[in-house]
Amino acid sequence: MAGKKKSKDSKGSRASRRAAKPAGLRMSQLMAATGLPKSTLLYYVEQGLLPRPLKTSPNMAYYDPACVERAALIRSLQGQHRLPLGKIKAILQASDQGQDIAPLVALAQEVFGQDQGEKLDTEQLLAATSMEPGHLQQLLEAELLLPLEPGLYDQQDLAMARIYVFGHAQGLRPQDVGYYVRLGRRIVDEEMRLRARLTKDLSPELDAQVTLGMVQAARATRSYVIDRLFQHRIAAAEDLKDHKLLGEGKDDEDGA
Fold first, then answer.
1. What architecture does CATH give domain 25-54+62-112?
2. pTM of the full predicted structure?
């Protein structure tokens, strides 16, 4: 009788342990469900994009099943919409707070654009453009080349790098075009102040919608005004050597 009782107790203990098993996915199951490698999933956890797992021992951890859907959203935002991880984290936090993230995703897509395919590392960029490492470093320090992720260059970065290589061959130095950064920063500062004033009393969802329209308008305005100023300057000149091309600043200097 005692032996039978001990056997029943043993079975009950095993059943109790099975019942106490945490509800969640082990890493191997999460990898299979998301199609992502372990290194990527651990990186998402480290960056605060995925919640930390419940650790039951040094070598055993269980992940919330919601991580599968969350990882899919991260992949979509990072891949299709080219969002940096910082913006993805902000969107996920808004979702966790119950906000409708559709306007935020639409805004981010407008700001950052569509995925441009595989990014180039530094060595690949140098090889694709025949750029010297020192020239690349000068462009990065001058903020004339501004990759969204340090050390990774998309097609827009590649196109600008090729333009800079051409200019460099003509004797152009990064400091010669530094005004693009100085004036560009001033324009962006003014745009941000205007946006803050016009949206300060709006809800987060409406703020995103209005900001989306302002981003589109700002891009169109920058292009239109600068191109028109350039076109008017060219139209007023008699030839390419005409001093009128230098504008009023040059006239004032000559007059002085």
1. Orthogonal Bundle (1.10)
2. 0.71
Q: Which residues pair with 57 in a beta bridge?
A: 60
Angstrom distance (rounded) from CA 206 to CA 104: 10
CATH 1.10.1660 maps onto the chain at: 25-54+62-112
- Residue 121 identity (one-letter amino acid): D
What pLDDT does 4 receive? 54
Neighbours of 145 (CB within 10 A): 20
Alpha-carbon span 145 to 183, nearest angstrom: 15
- Residue 62 pairs with which residues in a beta bridge? 54
Render pLDDT for 218-240 as a digit per residue (tens, 0 to 9).
999 999 999 999 999 999 888 88
Cβ neighbours, 10 Å, residue 224 = 10
Residue 130: name the closest of 153, 162, 103, 105 by CA.
162
Distances (CA, A) of 18 to 4, 29, 59: 21, 18, 18
Do 160 and 180 form a contact (C-beta atoms < 8 A)? no
User: What is the 8-class DSSP label of residue 120?
Assistant: B
Answer positive or negative: Cα dihedral of 178, 182, 187, 192: positive
* Mean pLDDT for the stretch of residues 116-127: 92
Between 149 and 254, name the one with better pLDDT: 149
